[in-house]
């Protein structure tokens, strides 16, 4: 859900030696300081919800584009640590030409109108290591509907759902990815890394905090042996900002 504001930092300032072996700065204790109970504010002004017919038609269109091939899904964020789908195979892989980026303005999901947040998506440029999952064959339409309803909500959201090629050590597959190239989305924005950290250190919504999402993503990427320099730097900055905020409140 993804800067020269991102610039070099977003694509990952060069990885620090053994950085991924160090404990995360963004600890569970720090994340707990951000969590708060927030009611769902509902649909934002200016947005129209997708209808059942929209979901049904787009699922059929995706199946047509896949031409009967096995359905692979590329996961780079919450689909790794909260998959909510069945799979029969998976492997670590890389998407060339895409990078993780907190580039979508958020007022509803892990944020609120009084504490805006950011949603992670895949933006153009660089590369992104993630996990490819193969969905079980059969009932493809229902499986896609389930994913679409989880990952999209508003008119226009389908513009960032696409098939891309991802490559592992032994094979390459065409995989479905959500929130890749969302620059046409009205919520797309490019913020400096420092501004991203400020938002993520404060934002919490009815799905939880932005800091928790970041922490879960980094931890589960580590479990696959994946190190993302951008996210690693960002979690350090968010941890520092949370400590600063709560020290000032003491």
Report on this model:
The chain has 250 residues and is of the alpha+beta class. It has one domain (26-38, 48-249): Gamma-glutamyl cyclotransferase-like (Hypothetical upf0131 protein ytfp, Roll). It is 35% helix and 22% strand. It has a 5-stranded mixed sheet with strand order 2-3-1-5-4. Strands 6-7 form a two-stranded antiparallel ribbon. The longest helix has 21 residues, at 229-249. It is globular, with a radius of gyration of 18 Å. 40% of the residues are buried. Mean pLDDT is 91; it is low at 1-19. InterPro entries: ChaC (IPR006840), GGCT-like (IPR013024), GGCT-like_sf (IPR036568). It is an enzyme of class 4 (lyase). One of its GO terms (molecular function) is glutathione specific gamma-glutamylcyclotransferase activity. This is glutathione-specific gamma-glutamylcyclotransferase.
Summarize the topology.
Layout: H1 7-12, H2 28-34, H3 52-66, E1 72-75, H4 78-81, E2 89-106, E3 117-134, H5 140-151, E4 162-167, E5 172-177, H6 193-200, E6 204-205, E7 208-209, H7 210-223, H8 229-249
Parallel strand pairs: 1-5
Antiparallel strand pairs: 1-3, 2-3, 4-5, 6-7
